[in-house]
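Quick one: structure tokens for this chain, please?
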Amino acid sequence: MDNERIREICLALPFARETLNWGHHLVYWAGDRDIGGKMFAMTDLDGTGTGVLWFHCGTERFHELLEREGIIPAPHLARAHWIAVERWDVLRPREIEDELKRAHTLIFAKLPPKTKAILALPEKDRIKAIRDRKKILAVRTGTPSKPPKTPASLRAARTKKKAK
């Protein structure tokens, strides 16, 4: 098992997305983060963090998994029932796949109703709703989602200068 196989498994799940956060963590989300999606797993890309794979496992499974050698509570996320796998050989590949699917299911069930409603839309409408939400967030934070367009009058002036 490795990061690339984890990526294949996670992105094959319904409405799963990925982002690069905190410099070296590939984070997997149930639903797009910008519309209220929640993270369900992450991997450490450069090997400098604690463990190679972190994921949500639920209350009951959390304590079961902690009994295994090479599995520890995930730093900063243990209170939310996340564990960290220290090495790839701690769990068999099939177990990892099952745990990631379970993590996605648990987190997807916790998504806000508004987020689930957007994800239930037909693909074309869902993409438009996500794009619109990203624009709203960009306005709130003051970061443009796209470079600002030049007004027509400025474009005309530039065209005249180039013609001379």
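The longest strand covers residues 38-44.
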